[in-house]
């Protein structure tokens, strides 16, 4: 099963190059070059992972991460940045980011993290589904 990834970055050339490399590895990639398109893509699709640029002109990655986690708490987010700071990394992890990587990201390492994100999301969704089924069974008295 291919991994479905939302790739968000304002650098269009980087976005296209990374998207192409990810698709060559069998991933199903949707891209967004600004916050508005990212929110629209998030609302209209299901993703195994989101790869998110930390530095964007219209909204920084930390604020975008907050929006993602509020509406989709199960979503696995990997932040990418060309200007990594320890402070930004710690803040991202506290807000629920799965990982934090520096640009240019090693594609093999990023691919591995996306596969882990997919597995982690599947476990979360399975637990939520089992809880819903259990709640239904208890409420109906079956």
Automatic annotation (TrEMBL):
The modification 4-aspartylphosphate is found at residue 53. Residues 4-118 form the Response regulatory domain. It comes from the Bacteria. This is Response regulator. Coiled coil: none annotated. Keywords: Phosphoprotein, Two-component regulatory system. Pfam families: Response_reg. It comes from Pseudodesulfovibrio sediminis.
